[in-house]
Structure to design on (917 residues):
């Protein structure tokens, strides 16, 4: 006993009292028949590795029982002693239980462990406990136990482990004799505290304020428990264990836990298993302690023994900040386990190497040394950064432990985008001030500016800035290039800011409409009401869609050899092409660096956003007659020709698909007074005239108005100029290298006749250029299928097209009747309330829009069997959407340059899975 029972006011007969209580409450649980008990041991072969270990360590009362059981019936999968042949599987018992079974099979020194299935734990949560004797019979009567969660995927989390179950006054007295008073006190105190806080759910402050060692502290903890719980601290292992199991099972069913794991991808009905394990104490005589070891660095994935060991400790104490922990391997920075206990360390290293090889994964091992003897308590997959996940997978394959195909499956495609961009460090504190749509990945910090001009001034001063806009337009392009990140109040995943952001690798959050954007006052008000002004430092996390105050710590992007190796393996496996959407030479270079197989979409209108060009473009739009227009177009021609020459040169040997001019013309017109004045000056017209013309060109619904091929039909000179620029660039680039075969794509087609008319003019331009230059060339003409009608009439439209590329941004907009620029306002409500499972501009709606794609593809192939089919909307970079395109028989997907690696990996995974299944 504690020696001072009177002083702490504890009843002298407390243990007895508890036993009496238990007799009434819990004894029903002890009524398992001998036959039933035998069932549990049925499948155990004699002399298993487990037995060898148990015999060697004198642990596990189960061993003797195993040897004496010979029943032929199946073991109970619900409460199962973890033996090599026990019926344990990850989907029924969780990853931890399965891993422990594998360790047992490897003959590693794992203490006796019982696994409780998901089904059992669910029943416990609903009030139906298994008999405690069913569990306890496997352990020595005086064993201390711990319980740990075992969910199907360790990333889904679970309640924390509870150690030292079974500690009571009697065990305390006995252990004080054998291990010494200090060790016994620590064991008991630790258990009381964690039981009080996590099981009895008493106020943590009351127990956190009690010291972590000493008999005084122990007495105080017992007294506090008794006062708060209004009962003495439970004394029987059966009651303690039952309460621990119940509290862990209920914690898993709680709403917060459920939401947290669902956010990590767990299904609604994800189960929890529990493992009950005999403790190897880590406290007591001889060298005792606990630690954690892994063979790789979690941040980089490089091979490096990592972890700590702490004498006289339990659980993960060694990892606690400020603990006097030892390094594992000899280390110039301080003492190590290797020096302290060379034999145990050598064994540990050997076990870790065996686990890596046989479990075919990098594992983190929790171990205990008890009086010099090593015990392996647990193994979980090493937590890893995205960067480490690539290096680990490639490393395992290069060491012949897994195949390159398996390595491909082990890296989450979306994780790759983290490698390509700066990210906020995982453990950095985040002061989130607003949320929106994660439109372009990566993170960046800067001072807030509220106009493109201010962004450029910031850049000129060498000062990083974040551009804050209601939404962006072509006029903001220069500001976007100058900014480190962009945040907009409006817009969705395919809005201007989002598309440009992804194209140039600029972190971007759009549709942050729950914040208040006071652009005139140059002020941003956070969702919780805090005001931020121009010049204040904020951070945009375009990967998570969050706006943060201040400058959290960042992690730099890194493309190392492992990344390149993985990508090469991906390319060897995948069977669908991956191109990039690239509008500028810089985009094209990025696409080339990421090994895109060509450009699938060059949005030519983006080429006119450059300074100097915008004015000429405006002059062209304002031209009074065809003659004036031709004069402006003549100025634009050499610019376009130079653009295309540069693209063809960068992408040499690969296809470049150029989309003819698409957007509503008025998008190129100024919207503010300064812009109107500039244009008036350039045109030598009064501002009032210009203003009137701009207003006259306005449309009620510009996205369905004068844009795309409709411009090509009504103002054909624009397409003529573009075709000429393409052909002249083709001739000039082919002169000093392989012939270039350009692809020309007509946007927003809805009728066969549109294609006929445009095709006739482009053919005429081609003939003219051929005869003027005396040089022959070929080109491919294609149609962008982005209206529902184009899909439905694909068989006839395709008669005039070599290829059909589905523009799923507009197709989604038109299929849903949902403005792609305004969807951000209500999309999060729609997704939250389950109206849409996901933002359809982000993940392809395979039911509705997908139906149109399927129809379009089938009809196109029926009309022209060898037509090339592809997708060039933003969905081209989304793994699930790529799966759809591959299944529908598309030839390639085209996505933003920075998403190309992700698409290559996602496509490879689909091919590998097909081969396996
Ligand atoms: C589309 O509509 O899917 C597309 C790629 O074109 P844009 O986004 O330029 O309209
Ligand atoms: Mg479109």
């Amino acid at each position: 006993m504690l020696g001072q029972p009177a002083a702490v006011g504890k009843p002298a007969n407390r243990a007895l009292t508890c036993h009496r209580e238990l007799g009434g409450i819990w004894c029903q649980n002890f009524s398992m028949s001998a036959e039933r008990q035998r069932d549990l041991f049925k499948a155990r072969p004699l002399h298993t590795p487990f037995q060898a270990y148990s015999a060697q360590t004198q642990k596990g009362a189960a061993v003797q029982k195993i040897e004496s059981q010979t029943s032929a019936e199946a073991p109970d999968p619900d409460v199962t002693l973890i033996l090599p042949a026990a019926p344990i599987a990850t989907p029924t018992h969780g990853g931890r239980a399965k891993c422990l079974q594998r360790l047992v099979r490897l003959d590693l020194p794992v203490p006796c462990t019982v696994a409780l299935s998901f089904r059992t734990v669910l029943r416990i949560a609903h009030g139906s406990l298994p008999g405690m004797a069913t569990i306890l019979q496997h352990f020595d009567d005086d064993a201390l136990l711990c319980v740990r969660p075992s969910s199907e995927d360790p990333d889904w989390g679970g309640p924390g482990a509870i150690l030292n179950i079974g500690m009571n006054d009697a065990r305390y007295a006995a252990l004080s004799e054998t291990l010494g008073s200090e060790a016994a006190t620590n064991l008991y105190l630790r258990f009381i505290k964690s039981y009080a806080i996590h099981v009895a759910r008493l106020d943590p402050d009351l127990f956190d304020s009690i010291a972590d060692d000493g008999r005084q502290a122990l007495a105080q903890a017992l007294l506090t428990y008794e006062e708060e719980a209004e009962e003495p601290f439970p004394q029987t292992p059966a009651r303690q264990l039952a309460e621990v199991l119940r509290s862990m099972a209920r914690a898993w069913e709680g709403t917060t836990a459920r939401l947290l794991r669902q956010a990590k991808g767990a299904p609604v009905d994800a189960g929890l298993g529990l493992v009950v394990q005999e403790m190897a104490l880590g406290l007591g005589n001889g060298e005792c302690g606990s630690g954690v070891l892994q063979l790789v660095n979690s941040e980089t994935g490089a091979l490096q023994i990592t972890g700590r060991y702490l004498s006289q400790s339990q659980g993960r104490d060694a990892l606690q900040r400020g603990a006097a922990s030892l390094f594992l391997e000899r280390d110039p920075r301080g003492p190590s386990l290797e020096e302290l206990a060379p034999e145990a360390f050598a064994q540990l290293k050997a076990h870790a190497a065996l686990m890596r090889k046989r479990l075919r994964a990098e594992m983190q091992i929790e171990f205990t040394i008890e009086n010099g003897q090593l015990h392996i308590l647990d193994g979980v997959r090493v937590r890893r950064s995205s960067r480490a996940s690539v290096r680990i997978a490639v490393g395992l394959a290069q060491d012949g432990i897994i195949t390159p195909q398996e390595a491909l499956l082990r890296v989450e495609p979306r994780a790759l985008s983290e490698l390509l961009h700066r990210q906020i460090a995982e453990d950095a504190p985040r002061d989130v001030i607003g949320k929106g749509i994660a439109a372009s990945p990566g993170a960046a910090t800067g001072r807030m500016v509220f106009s493109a001009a201010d962004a450029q001034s910031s850049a000129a001063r060498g000062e990083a800035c974040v551009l804050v806009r209601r939404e962006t337009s072509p006029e903001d392009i220069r500001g976007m290039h100058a900014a480190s990140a962009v945040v907009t109040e409006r817009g969705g995943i395919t809005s201007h800011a989002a598309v440009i952001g992804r194209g140039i690798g600029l972190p971007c959050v759009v549709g942050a409409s729950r914040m208040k954007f006071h652009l005139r006052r140059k002020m941003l008000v956070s969702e919780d009401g805090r005001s931020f002004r121009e010049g204040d430092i904020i951070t945009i996390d375009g990967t998570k869609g969050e706006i943060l105050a201040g400058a959290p710590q960042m992690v730099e992007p890194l493309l190392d050899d492992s990344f390149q190796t993985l990508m090469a393996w991906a390319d060897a496996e995948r069977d669908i092409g991956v191109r990039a959407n690239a509008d500028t030479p810089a985009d094209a270079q990025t696409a080339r660096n990421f090994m895109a197989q060509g450009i699938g979409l060059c949005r030519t209108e983006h080429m006119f956003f450059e300074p100097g060009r915008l004015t000429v473009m405006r002059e062209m739009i304002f031209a009074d007659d065809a003659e004036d227009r031709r004069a402006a177009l003549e100025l634009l021609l050499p610019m376009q020709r130079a653009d295309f020459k540069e693209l063809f040169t960068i992408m040499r040997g690969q296809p470049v698909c150029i989309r003819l001019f698409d957007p509503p013309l008025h998008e190129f017109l100024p919207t503010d007074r300064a812009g109107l004045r500039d244009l008036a000056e350039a045109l030598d017209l009064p501002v009032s005239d210009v203003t009137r013309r701009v207003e006259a060109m306005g449309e009620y619904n510009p996205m369905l108005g004068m844009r795309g091929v409709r411009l090509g039909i009504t103002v054909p000179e624009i397409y003529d100029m573009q075709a000429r620029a393409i052909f002249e660039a083709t001739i000039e680039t082919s002169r000093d290298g392989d012939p270039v075969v350009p692809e020309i794509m007509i946007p927003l087609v809805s009728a066969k006749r549109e294609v006929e008319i445009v095709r006739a003019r482009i053919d005429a331009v081609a003939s003219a250029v051929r005869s003027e230059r005396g040089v022959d060339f070929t080109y491919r003409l294609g149609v962008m299928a982005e209206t529902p009608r184009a899909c439905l009439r694909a068989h006839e439209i395709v008669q005039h097209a070599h290829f059909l590329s589905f523009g799923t941004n507009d197709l989604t907009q038109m299929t849903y009747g949902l403005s792609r620029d305004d969807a951000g306002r209500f999309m999060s409500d729609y997704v939250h309330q389950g109206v849409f499972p996901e933002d359809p501009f982000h993940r392809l709606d395979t039911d509705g829009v997908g139906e149109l794609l399927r129809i379009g593809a089938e009809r196109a192939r029926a009309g022209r069997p060898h037509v090339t089919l592809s997708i060039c909307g933003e969905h081209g970079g989304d793994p699930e959407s790529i799966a759809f395109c591959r299944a529908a028989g598309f030839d390639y997907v085209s996505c933003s340059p920075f998403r190309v690696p992700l698409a290559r990996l996602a496509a490879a995974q689909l091919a590998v899975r097909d081969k396996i299944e």
